[in-house]
């Protein structure tokens, strides 16, 4: 009951500050940007003056799986950045402004406080991602060739897990720092370090959350469900939940005022 | 019956001791003022009681609640500079606060309605965003959110410091009323406010309680009286004569008033009046005043 009060407050807040409008729009934009510019590249080159006479370039023909990966690669860079910006003040901002003093003096359970924020961010992210990838899937079908709807759903689900992990990480740093800037910095730093480690120790770290995109590509190209993808998905879910639990523990030990 | 007893409460940041082993207790339906100069540790003490800060040492024992159990449902708290979700309306925020304190939706709404009227937030303002509220309105909304769940102890940090005289008066009247229903612990550095509504005083300085008790007790203990004298002609003519009275300890002319402090106020008064009658002084004013709370406060703090 208290949880739903907190959760509803988050939804209302995100509605009033227009996050429910701009986040889906930005995610849609990021998802379709690359597929569409790639498709229209010849026309774009033409209209900006074309190539010198005699130049022959053959633009690669893209297969639908590659097009989907274009969307994911945009989401993995700019999309992640947007999500970090979106969530960086979620708890730290309330602590900085002091409004958490009023909220947490009430008999509010700390885990309710944290998980309601986590859940509301996830809802926003998953719905935006759905709309983004759906648009991307639509254009892929029109412009590049057919991709089964079930494949789209699979891509959506597995990639959503990666963003879930990003949100959990941001919540963790939210409980550690009062400055939204630090939250953003450390979230991005962690993702970068993880990505580098995954690259370097590819043979050892097979199921890093950072590898989800690679396995999604494998799934699309081989048309089979790689066991590595399932394992990585499982690991990502477990790590996300662990990170969330640690956040709650950290928050309990934190002093809520200066 | 004690409502709350605090024992050897201590707060340290590193090696710096902010609050040093303070102990006090108080009962139901009391109004206690926590007084002290800036930096004395008033806010830190209140935050520890509200559960926002963890004491380094010592215990806070609430009546009928086991040690180390959550006491937040029994406490209402208003910080010195409250900040709200400014995108909410006043009423929304109150209902939200009530729901967080585990009231049902209906209870919370009813309670919010009656509190908004009680603290004097107009119907129009109730549905306006808090970002448009004035300082006084925010303060009143802050009190309303603190008592939405009918706490047994209401903690207010400098509730009137930021208000204009009118707002100050309103809040004091409100506190007077709330005293019937709950114990109020508030901090202030404005002694007249403390004088006006509190039953007991706790004087805090440098993280220690240096004096406590009812206002009357403290008055008796630290009382000094001052005689104020004005005359039609020049005060200097009489100044010397007055200083020659043995019990007079200090005199001081400010504008056209002569302030006289004495070790024995009764004898001093008799002497001066006798002198005045004998020599027919053109007195325009003669009064014996209690030393102001400020004087008392300064004395206690400086001791």
TrEMBL record, chain A:
A Pfam family recorded for this sequence: ABC2_membrane_2
Domain of life: Bacteria
Record protein name field: ABC transporter permease subunit
Entry annotated with the keyword rRNA-binding: no
Entry keyword set: Membrane, Transmembrane, Transmembrane helix
Chain ranges passing through the membrane: 20-41, 67-86, 118-140, 152-173, 180-201, 229-251
Keyword S-adenosyl-L-methionine in annotation: no
Species, as recorded: Ornithinibacillus xuwenensis
Automatic annotation (TrEMBL), chain B:
Keyword hit for Iron-sulfur: no
SMART domains given in the database record: AAA
Cited CDD domains: ABC_DR_subfamily_A
The keyword Phosphoprotein belongs to this UniProt entry's keyword annotation: no
GO molecular function, one term: ATP binding
Keyword terms, alphabetized: ATP-binding, Nucleotide-binding, Transport
InterPro entries per record: AAA+_ATPase (IPR003593), ABC_transporter-like_ATP-bd (IPR003439), ABC_transporter-like_CS (IPR017871), DrrA1/2-like_C (IPR025302), P-loop_NTPase (IPR027417)
Residues in ABC transporter domain copies: 4-231
Domain of life of the organism encoding this protein: Bacteria
Pfam families linked to this entry: ABC_tran, DrrA1-3_C
Protein family membership: Belongs to the ABC transporter superfamily.
The name this protein goes by in its record: ABC transporter ATP-binding protein
Protein's organism: Ornithinibacillus xuwenensis
